[in-house]
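Hey, resending since the last one bounced:
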Amino acid sequence: MLSILLLLMFPVIILGMIWVFLLIVNYLNGGYYDSVGNYVHYVSIDIVNEYFLNALPWVVAGVAIWFTIAYFFNASMVRHAVGSRPLERRENVRVYNIVENLCMSCGMPMPKLYVVDDPQLNAFASGIDNNSYAVTLTTGIIDTLDDDELAGVVGHELTHIRNRDTRLLITSIIFVGIISTVMSIVVRTMYNTFLFGDNRRKENNGASVIVILLVGLACCAVAYLFTMLTRFAISRKREYMADAGGAELTRNPLALASALRKISANPGLDNVKRADVAQMFICEPDEMESGLMSFMNSLFSTHPDVNKRIQILEQF
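The structure tokens again:
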């Protein structure tokens, strides 16, 4: 129930920021000169609501179309982002046997298996239903971990699928992507206004346009912050639950702890620069662990500290 409420917050945040944007624009453009010549700003809530109601169908339709496309094509988008390919049974019977045995022990359909040709170590689960659920492994994790450790990792990812975590994460990724794209459009529009808008500014009061764009950017930034916080609330606790589920499924928490220790020492999928996709990995790529953006991502990281996860598993 909490996860559903958190997901419902995404469209509420988007619509709320649009209303706030219209409110601020109305404040900046609405006003009058008093008896002593001072300009007094005022806000007309009726006008703001009228503009909001006029924009609402377009906003809802745009978000719905975007969300529908991303929701149903998420599997191909994820595969493209990480560069994965199907893992055939004849290519690696060992992996298939491990996954099949775990699926039979918990009574779940077997997900699709994909592999990324990466000598480093990582894994993740994805998908929204039985037709798209998948577990993806790097060649490095397959070659490095022993059977018990690999079973622990697969059990972790299967728990994500069983708990519907992948559906929640993909939904949050889509909404965060919408906000990010709107922010990019606003920034690009501001850039073009400053760089190419000299004549336009003289004719169309460009200063007001710039102020409105700045207000839009600020609203988008606030919305993005709230969506990041919401995604954080959805995801971090579920990593602990997936660790516990993997340990329970394999009845070998120490094997998963050992696997996490090896993975964290050499996490792969460094070429995946999208933090929204990387949040699905069992460990974040080490290439994302430096710089200001890394610091900001760590504040809203969907993954708990690996050492803490290992410590809990060793006490399981």
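Confidence is low (pLDDT under 50) at residues 200-204, 289-297.

Sorry for the duplicate.
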